[in-house]
Amino acid sequence: MNLEEFLSQSIPVIDITYGKILLSIFVLVFGYLAVTLLVHYVRRSMDKADMSELLIEFTGRITKLLLLIVVLVAAVGALGFDVGSGLVSIAVVFGFVIGFAFQDILGNLAAGFMIALTKPFKAGEFVEAAGKTGNIKNVGISNTVLLTGDNKKVIIPNSEVWGSSITNYTTMDTRRIDLTIGIGYDDNIGKAMEVISNIVKNHEKVLKEPSPTIATNELGGSSVNLIVRPWVKTSDYWPVKRELLKQIKERFEKEEIELPYPQTDIHLFKEN
Question: In what residue span(s) does the Mechanosensitive ion channel MscS domain sit (predicted)?
């Protein structure tokens, strides 16, 4: 039966008895309880399998929705209605309408499912996604919540997160600090590198392996630029970076090593 034939049919008169009503209510109540218990069992099984919370939430909701639809159809059938007639046609039309009206929502759900499968980040990690940077507060089935450094709450649709490049700054145990230190052209490069090397190697939180890199990188417009690249534990990244910058500045002042900054010289000429 196609959709046109189904819509042209007259509605049959159904003899609904009290017995059918009670049966339908029983199907609804028993079905709801059974679905709740089954979904709870599915969630617990997935949790024991060490699956992500997002995947558990997504699977639980979809499973519950589909099973409740089955229960509802069964309850309507218990009243005496022919639920099979035209059901496929209605499902096709319903699916088309829902898909068109909620395409953004469905896109976010699909993206959330992919995030749950690939696990690019988890709650508490510091990431950059969809052009936003912050700590992951929550990963839901439709959106991801970030907390920025100044404590702003940013809610990003999962479709934007999944459709962008994702940088996870805290997923690895160690991280490299990248510093560029400029010295004057009249300063001794070897002396400057020795001062920096002593500071880096004597810092208790700088890792011995991989060994730090200290090298000349560029002859800039107003300075000779040295690169300083020590490795630290990820949790120590920001404190160590700040401490190294402070110590290098203080030691350079004592050793009279210049830290130049860009400047422009203006020469005025007077005719005749």
Answer: 104-170
How many angstroms separate the CA atoms of 196 and 214, rounded?
8
Q: In CATH, what number does 174-254 get? A: 3.30.70.100
Phi, psi of 180 (to 5 degrees): -120, 115
Lookup: tokens for 48: 């024991």
Phi, psi of 207 (to 5 degrees): -75, 145
Those residues with Cβ within 8 angstroms of residue 244's Cβ, 6 or more apart along the chain or in another chain: 177, 179, 199, 200, 203, 228, 230
Question: What is the C-alpha to C-alpha distance for residues 154 and 168, in angstroms, rounded to an integer?
Answer: 17
The domain at 121-168 falls in which architecture? Roll (2.30)
Ranges for all domains in the chain classified under CATH 3.30.70.100: 174-254
18 φ/ψ sector (left φ>0, alpha ψ -120 to 50, else beta): alpha
Domain limits, CATH 1.10.287.1260, in the chain: 3-111
Q: Which tens digits make up the pLDDT trace of 230-265?
A: 999 999 999 999 999 999 999 999 999 999 877 766
pLDDT digits (tens, 9 = 90+) for 22-58: 888 888 899 889 988 998 888 888 877 777 776 777 7
* Each residue's pLDDT tens digit, 178-215: 999 999 999 999 999 999 999 999 999 999 999 999 99
- Taking residue 243's Cβ as centre, other Cβ atoms within 10 Å add up to 15
List 135's β-bridge partners, or say none.
Answer: 126, 147
Strand-by-strand arrangement of the 132-139 sheet: 153-157, 143-147, 132-139, 126-129, 166-168
pTM for this one?
0.62
- Nearest CA among 199, 259, 198, 265 for reference residue 225: 259
